[in-house]
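Quick one, tokens below. Sequence please?
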């Protein structure tokens, strides 16, 4: 049992480093045209193999195990397999999204355990800073993508054209990112109660927009998206704080 606990502890930093590499490759460093090409052509898409190669290279660099070429190769093959299967389903709902990301997470865990079992040298920076880096990546990209997919059906029922016409382009995206960033800061400094003031402030700003006759569905859509976003940010903040 002690050996297993020790192995898990040694695997924590490699797992966080590989997770950061995955989040970087899958979100900010992946152009939208690559996503669209993979969705349209699946395993026939050159973007699938280009993205897989980039993800494998980034994983190898972040793992800092220069002789372990198999880390990058495994990540690249995993991206080809998982992304190809997802593209063939031609669905991009929350279930498919979580299944794809879960498969990548399992691969990251297996590789981290293999790295730790081989007695690899420690990864710099440590687990605390790597956890904070992952928290920022989750808050700015992953969680927004998850909430967006989870609420896509309701957004379609409301009519996205009417909603977008009344607001600034991409304003909702940046509001969500800033809200989650504030929640992360509040949790890290030990002031979780401040999240309540953030909810109250947003309610005041939204009050006039969602209290008009016939806007109950829009109000519920906004509430679900906001609460889901806040919950994910709170969980992320608590996880990052536990690693510091």
């Amino acid at each position: 049992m002690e050996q297993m606990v020790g192995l898990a502890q040694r695997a924590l930093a490699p797992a966080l480093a590989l997770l950061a590499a995955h989040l970087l490759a899958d979100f900010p460093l992946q152009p939208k045209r690559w996503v669209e090409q993979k969705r349209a052509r699946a395993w026939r898409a050159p973007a699938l193999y280009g993205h897989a190669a980039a993800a494998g290279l980034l994983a190898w660099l972040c793992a800092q195990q220069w002789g372990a070429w198999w880390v990058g190769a495994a990540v690249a093959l995993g991206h080809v397999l998982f992304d190809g299967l997802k593209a063939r389903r031609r669905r991009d709902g929350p279930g498919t999204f979580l299944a794809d990301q879960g498969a990548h997470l399992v691969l990251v865990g297996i590789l981290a355990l293999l790295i730790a079992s081989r007695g690899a040298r420690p990864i710099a920076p440590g687990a605390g800073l790597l956890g904070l880096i992952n928290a920022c990546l989750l808050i700015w990209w992953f969680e927004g993508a998850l909430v967006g997919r989870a609420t896509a059906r309701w957004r379609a029922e409301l009519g996205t054209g009417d909603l977008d016409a009344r607001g600034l382009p991409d304003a909702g995206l940046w509001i969500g990112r800033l809200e989650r960033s504030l929640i992360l800061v509040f949790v890290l400094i030990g002031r979780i109660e401040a999240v309540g003031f953030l909810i109250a402030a947003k309610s005041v700003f939204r009050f006039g927009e969602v209290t008009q006759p016939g806007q109950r569905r829009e109000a519920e859509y906004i509430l679900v998206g906001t609460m889901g976003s806040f919950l994910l940010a709170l969980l992320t903040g608590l996880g990052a704080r536990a690693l510091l």
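The two ends are 25 Å apart (CA to CA). The chain is about 80% helix and 0% strand.
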